[in-house]
Structures are given as C-alpha cells and as structure tokens.
Specification:
mainly beta, Immunoglobulin-like, 1 helix, 7% helix, Ig-like domain-containing protein, Ig-like_CS_Receptor, transmembrane helix, glycoprotein, disulfide bond
C-alpha cells in the first residue's frame, strides 16, 4: 500500500529454529515471542523470550500470562540504541505439564504512548511432546506357536503428541519396514524353532527412538529320538555388573536318552567359542551342564545370548537371555554454566549413558541440599542406555560469598557420582539491566592510569636493583 498506511505482517517460524511468533507495524513499536528451539516433554523447564520496541522512553511494563495466571520474568534487559530509543527483552522459564497441551503463553507490553498494550501469544501445543508407549502383541499367542506357522505381530502406539512419527520394524536388528504416523500396525511373519527377535521403534523428530521387543520362537513339535521328556534352565549372576566384567551363564538340562548332546552358545548371532559342556549319566538318562563367560560391554543393553541344544544332531531346545538384566552402566555426570546474565545463572547437569533407568538427582549449594528441585525425566538413547538433563537457576544478584554448586546422582545402590562448579561472580554484560548503572568512562580511564603507574614503578625498582648488584 501507500507509505502513509501501516503494514501489518505476521510470521510463524517452524521447529528447524526457535518457535517464533512476530508481529510488527511499520514505524511503530513491534513485539516478538520466541519459544524453545525444540519440543520438550512435560516436567522439563523451557525458556520463552519476548522482545518489544522501539519506545521513546523506558516507561513500560512487561507481563507474562499463562492462560489467566500471571508469572514473573526470570531475566529482563533494557537496550538503548544510538538514537535514544529503548527496547525491552524479557525472559521467563516455565515448567510445562501434560495439561498444557491446551494452554497459551502470552507476553503483554504496556507503555504510556500506546493506546492499547502490545500482545503476542503462543499455543503451548507447539512446544510440547509426549513420548509414546509401545506394546507388541501376537496372534496366535506366543506360547502356542508351531514351527513355520504364520504369526501376526501388532505394534500398538499410544499416548503420543504430535501426531507425526515413524514406526520402524526391525528383525534381528535389521530394518524390514517403515510406516508413517500409524496408531498401530500389523505385520505377518513365520515362526521358527531357533527364534527371531523383532523390535518396533517409534521415532519422533530428533528424540531418541522408543522401542518394544519380542522374541518369536516356536515350540519343538517333537522331541529327540528315544527321548520322553526333559527340563532345562538358563541362569546368570544375581547382581548387576559394570562393563568390562566377565559374568558366567550356565545352562542345565536333564532327561536325554543318550549322551550325544551338544551345546552351542551365541551372542547376537556370533558363536562363543570359550564354553565348557559336560554330559553325565543319571540313572537311565543323561544330564547336561554348559557354562560360558560373557564379557559385558556398555552397548550390551540390547544384546541377546542364545543357548542351542542338539540331541543326535536334532535341535531340541534354544534358550535366549537378555544381557540387560545383568548390566549396570554408571552415568557420566558433568556440570556446566550454560548461560550467564546479570540476574540469573543457568547451570546444567547432563547425566549421560546410564542403565538401568532409575536414578535420583539432587542439587547442593555449598554442601546444602537445594529443596524444591524437580526430578527430570530420563530419555532412552538408540543403544538402550538413558540420558537426562537437569537445569538449576541461581539468582546472581544476591551473591555475597563464593558458591559451589554440586550435582549429585545416585544410581542403584552404588556410591553417588557427583560433579561441582564454582560459580564465577565476574559477569560479562550483554545488555544493560533495568535500573542498574554501569561504570562511567572517566572512571575506567583513571583505573587504567593507576594500574599502568604501578607497573612502571615495579619495573623501575627491578632495573635499579640489578644495576646496583652488577656494579658490586
């Protein structure tokens, strides 16, 4: 239109960058509202930034509103340009819950020169993500499958948001099918005696996949020659062990009519050679005992060990055991100062690559437990381990002493693992805080002059000392 007519433009940016809602009028103050850079699950704190300006004076106020409830800003900064105009940037951290899928976040800016407040809103459904729950069912039941029978596997995907995701079927760790945005999906496979492992993966955006597993193994239709009945068991240690530990697995079976029994051990389809098997008579039948040592590794959360038993060259039994039930991967804990402002220091504690899932995290300030900290939820990595991240906001404006912030993690019954950070009180100003005054330029020049004068005195003293010593 003509230059005298104001031009209103609204832009919505997607999740490849921050979620942003911008509205501005040509020649008039504008307002923008920016959400987190990616979707987050409930119970995690997320930042929202609101920027408004330019204004002719600093006589304005910023209000954050979630639905009908007002919230205080975490950080608020005032910026002045070379023309004397003012702009305001306000930041708030919010911990979202599942019910916020229907909520709205609003930033409202009032100024005496405005006939009505500047206002920008964002639906929280744009920043929330619900991780799906998965379940695999079989028809007929997995307990009644015969060799070479066709079986329907159904992957049920529930309670997730947003609606778009990829469902990936895996067979023995190889992709066999990819389906887009299903609520559930059914595939048909054939049962075999040696067993086949199937997994259903749900992939949402950049989040680690969620998965469900099932091992499909048919029951033997007949026993070995001359064999009436037998019983067997596969057992491992009673405690969890860390990577680098050798654990024993033992297979026992009885009721064989002859001693022609062989036992083969496989880990993820690779044969284990260092096993010990003994066959000994017991009355009219034979018993078998076989053992093997397994070296646990950090990526064994998804590993399988198979024990195959043949009697007179006929496969009569295969036992499968998952190594995750014996594995404990301790977490790696670090602490970093992820952001810095005049009012708030955001300290992050990433707890990475641990298994099993249950951990307890606590924050300590100078050895005192910080009460009220929210327990973050963990997320599963593609290798089966878990990761979580906790954020602690520290009020920097009331620092009167050195503060040591410690992130302490308790994993199972092991001694706690912790990392600490000494908070620095030296703050680099990125913007001028409202109501604060910075050092004037003459004062800075005077300080530089005094420091330079002291340096010159020290150098002169040293030079005089060496001159006299040399003349002696």
């Amino acid at each position: 239109g003509e230059e005298s007519q104001p031009c209103l433009l609204t832009v919505i940016l997607g999740f490849s960058h921050a979620v942003t809602a911008i509205s501005f009028l040509g020649g008039q103050p504008s307002i923008s509202l920016v959400g987190p850079t990616r979707r987050t699950t409930p119970e995690n704190p997320v930042p929202f930034n609101c920027t408004a300006g330019p204004f002719s004076s600093s006589d304005f106020n910023v209000t954050w509103i979630k639905d009908r409830d007002e919230h205080s800003a975490s950080v608020q900064c005032l910026v002045t340009d070379n023309k004397g105009n003012y702009s305001i940037t306000s930041k708030v951290w919010m911990t979202l819950c599942r019910q916020d899928i229907l909520s709205e976040m609003t930033c409202e800016v009032t100024h005496r020169a405005l006939a009505e407040p500047l206002r920008r809103s964002m639906n929280l459904s744009r920043v929330l993500q619900f991780v799906p729950t998965l379940k695999i069912t079989t028809k007929p039941s997995a307990m009644q499958i015969r060799v070479h029978q066709r079986v329907n596997l159904t992957c049920h995907v529930n309670h997730f948001y947003p609606s778009h995701l990829l469902l990936i079927w895996m067979e023995n760790r190889h992709k066999v099918q990819i389906v887009e945005s299903p609520q559930e999906h059914t595939g048909q496979v054939e049962a075999t005696l040696d067993g086949r492992e199937f997994a259903c993966w749900a992939v949402q955006d950049e989040q680690p996949p969620v998965q469900a597993n099932i091992t499909l193994q048919a029951q033997a239709s007949r026993l070995g020659k001359g064999m009436s009945s037998y019983s067997s068991a596969l057992q491992g240690p009673l405690r969890h062990s860390e990577p680098g530990t050798n654990i024993p697995l033992t297979f026992t079976s009885s009721g064989f009519s002859t001693g022609q029994v062989t036992v083969t051990w496989l880990k993820n389809s690779h044969q284990l050679l260092k096993s010990q098997t003994s066959v000994h008579p017991c009355g009219d039948t034979y018993n078998v005992t076989s053992s093997v040592l397994i070296l646990l590794q950090a990526d064994d959360v998804q590993s399988l060990v198979h024990c195959q038993v043949k009697h007179i060259s006929i496969l009569v039994s295969q036992k499968t055991i998952r190594l995750e039930q014996y594995l404990r991967v301790p977490p790696t804990v670090t602490v970093s100062q992820s952001s810095h402002s005049l009012d708030v220091v955001a300290v992050t504690c990433p707890v990475q690559r641990f298994y099993p899932q249950n951990v307890h995290l606590s924050w300590l300030e100078n050895c005192h437990i910080f009460k009220g900290a929210v327990q973050p939820s963990s997320k599963q990595n593609s290798d089966g381990t878990y990761t979580l991240e906790s954020l602690h906001l520290v009020n920097a404006s009331v620092w009167e002493y050195e503060r040591v912030l410690t992130c302490k993690v308790q994993h199972e019954t092991q001694p706690p693992i912790q990392a600490s950070l000494i908070l620095s009180t030296a703050v680099q100003d990125t913007c001028k805080l409202i109501g604060s005054t910075g050092p004037e330029m003459p004062a800075l020049i005077l300080m530089a002059f005094l420091l330079g004068f002291k340096v010159v005195l020290v150098i002169s003293f040293i030079a005089t000392y060496f001159h006299r010593w040399w003349n002696l």
